[in-house]
Amino acid sequence: MVTVAGNAPSFVLSTRLDLNSAEAIKKATLHATAHGAYEVRIDGQPVSERVLAPGWTAFDSRLQVQAYDVTEFVRQGCRLEALIGNGWWRSRLGFTAMDIDYASHIGFIAELEIVYASGAVQFVATDASWTAETSQVGENSIYHGQVIDKSLSGKPLTTCIVEFDRSTLVAQVKPPVLRHEVVHPISITVPDDKRFIIDFGQNLVGWVRLRARGSAGGRIVVRHAEVLEGDALAVRPLRSARATDTFVLSGEDDLFEPTFTFHGFRYAEVTGHPGPLSAENVEAVVVHSQMRRTGHFECSNPLINRLVENSVWGQKGNFLDLPTDCPQRDERMGWTGDLAVYASSAAFQFDVADVLHGWLLDLKVELQEAGYVPFVVPNLFKFASKAALKNYAHILGPTAIWADAAAWVPEALWWAYGDAARLAEHYPAVVGHLESVLPRVSDTGLWDKGFQFGDWLDPTAPPDKPLASKSDPGVIATACLYRTLSFAALAAEQLGKPDDARRWRHIAARTRTAFQQHYLQPDGRLRSDAQAVYALAIHFGLLDPEQSRAAAARLAELVRESGYHVSTGFAGTPYVTWALSTHGFVEEAYRLVLQTDNPSWLYAVKMGATTIWERWDSLLPDGTVNPGEMTSFNHYALGAVVDWLYKAVAGIRPAQPGYQRIHLQPTPGPGLDWARATLETRHGQVTCGWRRNDADIVIECTVPQGAEADLHTWHGEVLVLGPGSYEIRKPC
Which helix H or strand E contains 577, and what residues bound it? Predict the structure, then answer.
């Protein structure tokens, strides 16, 4: 791997091609990767629209290699150059002063394969003959931003070769990170003679692209934030992340685009701009992994529609090469718990088969190394110093929901896409996770020992104590263990592993019995008597039918007692409406979702949110930011309720993995006049929805060619539908 002496923040490597033959080139393919981030050009033309390559994987085990078709660019004497920056490899990652780099150097390795018309092949690889020079990119960091100095010209640097473990090289699996759209300002205000405040109208992830002309050496500084407090950026939620880009003018017309960083923001503050700032000269570039939009939902309530769009924007912003918790502060890591509860929603809204498959491959190698599923994948904690981990060492180990991502994410992918080969690749991690948990189960059969996040961010918990949930963490953990065991048994059956399936079913039955014996009280209530424990026990199937009906009735009672306010955190939020509506408490589920006072899903919408917040009250009613140290305005986990909107309200569910057979079950309820959803499955587009008439409700649905659907009505009927479009009227 080629690097330069002195650990420059960025540099350009280049060579000129000396072709072996004058004959026509049939195919030219560039294979490349980096310790850092890179952008390749041939004669000044980018070979790809990809940004932030090679992305972020478990670099010590898996470094993805990208392949580019460069046939149209290659000619005798053309200049091949690569701009190298820090990327995730050397950006001082982590929180609480972890400041983790994978190594102190950055470098680039590539091989150009040229196939001539005769079949002859020429290879051009990075070696000591490549030259290096400084670039116009100065300091660059995922958290802190990027400096671009257009006044600089390149100066020679000394190259050197760094040896590395080539066994870590793997073919590209995850889709590329790309620019997807441009958002223009909705306003530019001038609070004083030094600052321009730009409102892009949407909390997004990417960067500001700016055109300017001014005196050579002039500096423009762009700072980013998700919300304002008064006329100033609210930067406290960023913690140590500076989220600041600096642009140095050349004296000519300059275009600045900081592609070695990214920010989560709606607002940008610009200082040092030469003269007035025109909306025509500034725009926000939206960046995320390539994902095809597959699912849509709309209904008669515009606030619900905005909630769904907030979920979509949250997913776009946090699926930037890997699924992160948030995209703005000094974190942006692959927290497993966030994705565990959101994966089903994610797989409805976008085709996430490849991006999550790639992430699960990292989860598998990190599990093998740690002996359990880490809180974050890639696992930064293993690189942190003892001093940085002093407040966390006692909690490291498998935890419910977070570690259950090893099973719940493959479960979501299995039902969404039905890919048996990939299920087989993911199954060893399911097993590895369970093998790490079972020794921690008590003699009672309960998972009630060790640290648990529990119902993280229960809204009744104080801002500085997110663990202070109403729900007993042992109830939460044992319920989650049962769900994972159940999926492990199903997966083993699908993969032709009958002995495994019998083992997991046996342990699941033992866990279910222990749950009922120890957590189900004689009066039918569950220990801690909180919304989350009922939601999980009901939805995960831990109770017998009569017990489940009684638990649902108690859950509905708790919802009514709360004034139809959310009383769940990460654990219960995705499942509370499911637990209600599937047991006949449709009104309670609808009123819970349609609530607009805090805490509720629509409180944030009423407060102007354009993404999902980390806390129910990340922004307080007076417009100030929640006083807790940890708050984000783009954190998709609590948006997992959209799964219920898609699959219960509109009614599109898989009856078999990959929607090979479709389960349609729309659920009309009070407060909506109509609702409908569409989903692009592997078998074609499915639609389902309903609308109220004076005397009845009309169900409208479409079944794609080659598929069959079972339509379940609220009257208990099941209609078998072949391909085609249907309009069916049913009494209210």
Answer: helix 576-581
Q: Which residues pair with 600 in a beta bridge?
A: none
Catalytic annotation, pick one of 81, 226, 588, 614: 614
pTM: 0.97
Active-site entry in 269, 283, 331, 366: 331
Tokens for 287, please give them.
């960046």
User: What tens digit of pLDDT does each residue of 344-376 get?
Assistant: 999 999 999 999 999 999 999 999 999 999 999
Within 10 angstroms of residue 238's Cβ, the number of other Cβ atoms is 25
Rounded alpha-carbon distances, angstroms, from residue 718 to 216, 269, 282, 331, 713: 73, 57, 55, 48, 7
3-state secondary structure of 362: helix
Give the number of other CB atoms < 10 A from CB of residue 586: 19
On whether the CB atoms of residues 487 and 501 are closer than 8 A, the answer is no
- Report the C-alpha gap between 602 and 617 in whole angstroms: 11
Q: Are 264 and 203 in contact (CB under 8 A)?
A: yes
Torsion sign over Cα 550, 556, 557, 562: positive
546 is catalytic: no
Reply yes or no on whether 614 is catalytic: yes
pLDDT in tens, 81-129: 999 999 999 999 998 778 899 999 999 999 999 999 999 999 999 999 9
> Angle CA(9)–CA(50)–CA(425) in degrees, nearest 5?
105
